Amino acid sequence: QVQLVESGGGLVQAGGFLRLSCAASGSIFSPNAMGWYRQAPGKQREFIASITRSAIINYSDSVKGRFTISRDNAKNTVYLQMNSLKPEDTAVYYCVGDLTIGTVLTGSPRYWGRGTQVTVSS
């Protein structure tokens, strides 16, 4: 069983930046595909970004050019650098993982973290 633990959320002003981290543990193998989703109050969960062990990356159009996903395979950790933050980026951000990229992209990955709150004030 894989556990995903997010950190790095918080309160930031519009235009600022935050860096989220997600550490995978509980298995000798970290998920091949990892990524981030977010959910704002009253809204559906939204795909943000994904990355495979071989560094194949996908972004949603809403964050492309502002957010950067990366991972350190040796540390079983994935990161989300969020720049030029906007109030509409306010949400709970969830780290996800699975063996295949398909489930990560379609919203049904096997593993989910508990989430970390990101609040962007205007």
In terms of structural class, how would the helical and strand content be classed? mainly beta
Helical region count? Answer: 1
- The poorly predicted ranges are none
- Molecular shape: globular
What amount of the residues lies in strands? over 45%
The topology string of helices and strands comes to EEEEEEEEEHEE
> If you compute it from the alpha carbons, what radius of gyration comes out, rounded to the nearest whole angstrom?
13 Å
Main sheet: strands, sense, barrel: 7 strands, mixed
Please give the alpha-carbon distance between the first and last residues: 40 Å
Question: Helix fraction?
Answer: under 10%
Give the oligomeric state of the chains in this entry, treating copies of one chain as homo and distinct chains as hetero.
single chain
The overall average pLDDT, rounded, is 95
Number of strands: 11
Structural description of this entry:
A hairpin with a 4-residue loop joins β5 (46-52) and β6 (57-59). With 122 residues, this protein is mostly beta strands. The protein has one helix spanning 101-105, and strands at residues 3-7, 10-13, 18-25, 33-39, 46-52, 57-59, 67-72, 77-82, 91-98, 111-112, 116-121. Helices cover 4% and strands 51% of the residues. The N and C termini lie far apart (40 Å). The longest helix is centred in the last third of the chain and has 5 residues, at 101-105. The relative contact order is 0.31. The strands form two sheets. Strands 2, 4, 5, 6, 9, 10 and 11 form a seven-stranded mixed beta sheet that branches. Strands 1-3-8-7 form a four-stranded antiparallel beta sheet, with no helix packed on it.
